[in-house]
Design brief:
Strand order of the largest sheet: 4-1-6
Structural class: alpha+beta
Strand content: 15-25%
Number of strands: 8
Largest sheet: 3 strands, antiparallel
Order of helices and strands: EEEEHEEHHHHHHEEH
Helix content: 40-55%
Number of domains: 2
CATH architecture of the largest domain: Sandwich
Amino acid sequence: MRPAQTVDRLYVIVTGRVKITRQNLKTGREVTLFLLGPGDGFNVVSLLDGRRQHVFAQTLDDTVALSGPSVLWHEWLDTYPELRRAFRGYVDAQLRYLADLAGDLAIHDTMTRLAHLILRYFDGEERRDAVRPNLIQDLSHEELAHLIGTVRVVVNRLLAELKREGIVDTEGGKLRVLDLEKLVRKAEHNIKGDATTSPTD
């Protein structure tokens, strides 16, 4: 889905994963703004302001989504208070996520950003009662790199370091947390050291 297609309809994902990216078409560099899964909506910003988003949407799996015209969604939001409250809560969560992502990219080094990414999705992997699945556990290193604003070779090195320290495991192509306490400590240690650490690698 290209930017011009983001204005007319709102999509809600039923199954599968969709990544929302910003790309520099000249350099080929991209950063993943959102990794969406079941229950997530896409084109929320366009629904609110009526303008196209300069993003690309791409499925990572076979994906099923429900969609409706933006005009109809506005009618529903005006008519149903419960839907309006739920929608506002979802928008608030998305805005907080973008604020956290901007902070990570601006002030934290790549190890901290990777630790934050793994911790953000930890509940979905480890808890049987989790509502959402872990959306990152089987992603390629290149896709993980796009999520933290770096390149694949850096993610390779960082995951190898975490694996040597017994913090994560990547056997079978799936990322698993082995020692949550160590992962949290590493993230906190790196955050404390940000005054002397470059945010880029």
